[in-house]
Amino acid sequence: MTKFSSSLPQLVLVGVPNVGKSSLVNRLLGARQxxxxxxxxxxxxxxxxxxxLGERSLYLxxxxxxxxxxxxxxxxAMTQLxxxxxxxxxxxxxxxxxxxxxxxxxxxxxxxHKTGKPIILIANQIDKxxxxxxxxxALGITTIVGVSAHHxxxxxxxxxxxxxxxxxxxxxEAPEPATTALALIGRPNVGKSSLLNHLVGEDISIVSEEPGxxxxxxxxxxxxxxxxxxxxxxxxxRRPGKIGRGVEKFSLVRTQAAIEAADICLLVLDxxxxxxxxxxxxxxxxxxxxxxxxIVVNKADQLEMSESDIKRVDRVLRSxxxxxxxxxxxxxxxxxxxxxxxxxxxxxxxxxxxGKKYSTRELNTLLEKIVAKQPPTTGTxxxxxxxxVVQTEIRxxxxxxxxxxxxxxxxxxxxxxxxxxxxxxxxxxxxxxxEFVSKYKQDREEQDETxxxxxR
Length: 456
Ligand code: GDP
Known about the structure:
Elements: E1 10-14, H1 21-30, E2 47-53, E3 56-62, H2 74-87, E4 90-96, H3 103-115, E5 119-124, E6 143-146, H4 155-165, E7 179-185, H5 192-200, E8 218-224, E9 227-233, H6 246-261, E10 264-270, H7 277-289, E11 292-298, H8 307-320, E12 329-331, H9 340-354, H10 360-373, E13 386-393, E14 397-403, H11 412-424, E15 432-438, H12 439-455
Parallel strand pairs: 1-3, 1-4, 4-5, 5-6, 7-9, 7-10, 10-11, 11-12, 14-15
Antiparallel strand pairs: 2-3, 8-9, 13-14
This protein binds guanosine-5'-diphosphate.
C-alpha cells in the first residue's frame, strides 16, 4: 500500500527544558497570525501546528523537553522525540544563549546528528548574550541563529534559515510514486479477471464461467511506460442477500481490503446489467476510502454500440454514479480488446494526477475567489469566515480550511468548494476531501491546555 504522505514539510523543535522553546513556538505562530492546530493523534506534550513562515506553510512540531536519563519521563519523552526526528524535514535545537552547554544538550545534539537532517541551532535570549560564541560550536551545528522570543529579535533571520533548509518542493510536481496500486473491483462475472489478463498481458488469473473463481488475491506488477502498476485482484462480492456466510463474507472483506490497499480502483461494470445497487455500493466504498476511481464498462461487444446505446449508457451512469461524477468512465470489451488502450491511458493520467501537491499561495488565492463568488451562509445571523487553506494530504487530496464557525456551514458548501476546485484543476479520477477547522476553537483549547498545565 502506498504510504499517505503529508504535503507539508515538518520543522521539529527540540531542546532541554527551560530554554524558552514554548515562547519561541508562540512567537513563530503569533507573530504571523498563524494557524494553530492540535493534531488529533498527537499527545498533549507534542503539539503540531500549521505555521506560515514567509512564503511557506509547514508543520511546526514542538517536542517535550529532553529528559535526562534516570528521570521518570525519560523513556516516554525519548520515544516521542525519536518519532518526531524520523518525521522531520528540518531540526531546530533551542539553547539558552547565556547558559553553559550542558551534557544533556551534547547528548541531544548527537541524537540529532545521527538523523543526517539539516539542523539549525537557535540561541535564545540573545538580548542577554552575544549571538556568536565559540562554545556553541561544541554541539557541532554550523547554522546558528540568535533570537529573543521574548523581545522578538532575530525571527526574520531564523525564518530565512528555516526556509533555506526546507526541502524545496512546494507547489512543484511531486515525484510520481514508484508504484501505483490498482484494484479491480466489481461484482462476480463482470469480467475483472479477463480485464486483468489484458492489462498485464499475461495469463495469470483463471477466467471462468463460474462466479467467484478468482477467490485469492493476486498481485502483479507491470511497467507501463514510466509507471509501475501493481494490480490487486480480488474475487467479486455477491449480491446483498447472500453476504454474511463463508466465502462470500470473506470476499467482501477482501474487496474492502483491496480498496484500502489501492491508489486507484477500477470499478468494473457489465454493460448488460449497468449500475446495480451493488455497483453503486462499491462506488460508495471507494469514495468513502478516498481512492482514485475509473469506471470500466465491460462487455461492450454484447451491444451494437449504436449512438443510442452509447447515449443510454452515458445517461444511466451519470444518474447512478452522480455522487462520483468526477470519475471518468471507459467502455471496453475484454473479449475483443476494444478500447483497452484508452483504459490504460486513463489509468496513467489518473495516476499522474494523484501525486500532485498544490502550492498554499495558489490555493489561498483560489479560496478567496471561491468565497467571494458565494460566501458560506448558515441560515442564521452568523456569517462564517474561511480564512486560510492548506493541503494536508496528497492521497487522498485533502484540503484543510481554517475559519470561524465551520460547524455551522451547510455540508453542501464543501461540495461547492470541491466543484470549484475541480473547475480550476484537472482532477478527473481523483478523490478530494475538504475539512473545515475552527481556528478559534483550536486556539482556545490550546490556551486552556497551557494554563491548565501552568496551574498544575
Ligand atoms: P470476474 O468474476 O469479474 O473476474 O469475471 P471473469 O473475468 O471471470 O469473466 C466472467 C465471464 O465473462 C467469463 O465467461 C468471461 O469470458 C466473460 N467476459 C469477460 N469479459 C467479457 C467481455 O468483454 N465480453 C464478453 N462477451 N464476455 C466477457
